[in-house]
């Protein structure tokens, strides 16, 4: 009587993507599986490959239409599940939205601050959070009243980025010398950087609004309205 052999079930596309099994992923995509197809938990092959840092699989998935900003049922993009800076940088360089907010209102950096503080620090260093927690680049500057100048924003961003990266480097070096885990200290410095970015952005916006109010008061004193236009007189009677 022949001994029954155990038949190993072939990997589905999500497992293959997470395992870095490019040949299996290619075969499944060629059979009609989309790189963005969700499983029962709305997890996509893009999320799986990003979570395990399988950059070669991400390369292929993106070439076949994989969306770096595809969301799951929680509103999380692949950037929310990365566990190392290399993968985060890879996704950012290919258009991953740093300032995306999931259904809990968290950005990727905010979501990763506790479990992957180094990744969160990298994301904050790429683009510190402006006032209000929103990306200023998403709103045309000419449509925003009281916004600081682009030059001022860039200077503030560079200062915050430099300070954050110096702090991260110092923490990592001290932790290595002392043989301890730097995660708790990294989480603290990232949280401080986020708060500092919000406070700085708010202060800059207030300064810009104060400047606008002063300019408006000067225009009023000179008999001019907004944008320097002459205000119509209201003390004249009807023309005959």
- The H/E string reads HHHHHHHHH
Please state the overall shape, judged from the principal axes of the Cα atoms.
globular
Low-confidence runs (pLDDT<50, min 5 residues)? 3-8, 129-146, 223-240
Strand content: under 5%
Count of beta strands: 0
What would the average pLDDT be, to the nearest integer?
Answer: 76
Radius of gyration: 26 Å
Class by alpha and beta content? mainly alpha
Task: Tell me the number of helical segments per DSSP (H or I, 4 or more residues long).
Answer: 9
Count of domains: 2
Task: Give the terminus-to-terminus CA distance.
Answer: 119 Å
Which range best describes the helical content: under 10%, 10-25%, 25-40%, 40-55%, 55-70% or over 70%? Answer: 40-55%
InterPro entries: Ankyrin_rpt, Ankyrin_rpt-contain_sf
Region (Disordered): 198-240
Pfam family, one: Ank_2
Keywords: ANK repeat, Repeat
Overall description:
With 240 residues, this protein is mostly helical. The chain has 2 domains: 12-106, Serine Threonine Protein Phosphatase 5, Tetratricopeptide repeat (Alpha Horseshoe), CATH 1.25.40; 113-131 and 145-221. 52% of the residues lie in helices and 0% in strands. The longest helix has 39 residues, at 183-221. It is globular. It starts with 12 loop residues before the first helix and ends in a 19-residue tail after the last helix. ANK repeats lie at residues 41-73.
Fold topology:
Layout: H1 13-19, H2 22-30, H3 45-51, H4 55-63, H5 85-93, H6 108-112, H7 117-126, H8 150-178, H9 183-221
Helix pairs in contact: 1-2, 1-3, 3-4, 7-8, 7-9, 8-9
């Amino acid at each position: 009587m022949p001994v029954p052999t155990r038949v190993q079930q072939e990997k589905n596309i999500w497992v293959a993507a997470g395992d870095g099994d490019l040949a299996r992923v290619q075969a499944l995509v060629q059979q009609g599986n989309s790189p963005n197809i969700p499983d029962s938990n709305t997890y996509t092959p893009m999320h799986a490959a990003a979570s395990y840092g399988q950059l070669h699989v991400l390369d292929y998935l993106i070439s076949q239409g994989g969306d770096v900003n595809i969301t799951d049922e929680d509103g999380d993009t692949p950037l929310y599940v990365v566990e190392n800076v290399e993968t985060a940088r890879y996704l950012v360089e290919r258009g991953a939205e740093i300032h995306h907010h999931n259904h809990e209102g968290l950005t990727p950096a905010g979501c990763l601050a506790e479990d992957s503080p180094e990744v969160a620090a990298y994301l904050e260093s790429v683009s510190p959070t402006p006032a209000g927690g929103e990306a200023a680049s998403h709103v045309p500057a000419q449509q925003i009243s009281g916004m600081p100048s682009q030059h001022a924003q860039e200077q503030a961003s560079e200062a915050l980025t430099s300070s954050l990266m110096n702090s991260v480097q110092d923490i990592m070096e001290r932790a290595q010398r002392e043989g301890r885990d730097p995660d708790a200290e990294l989480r603290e410095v990232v949280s401080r950087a986020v708060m500092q970015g919000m406070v700085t952005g708010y202060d800059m916006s207030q300064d810009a609004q104060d400047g606008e109010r002063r300019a408006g008061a000067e225009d009023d004193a000179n008999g001019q309205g907004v944008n320097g236009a002459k205000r119509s007189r209201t003390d004249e009677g009807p023309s005959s």
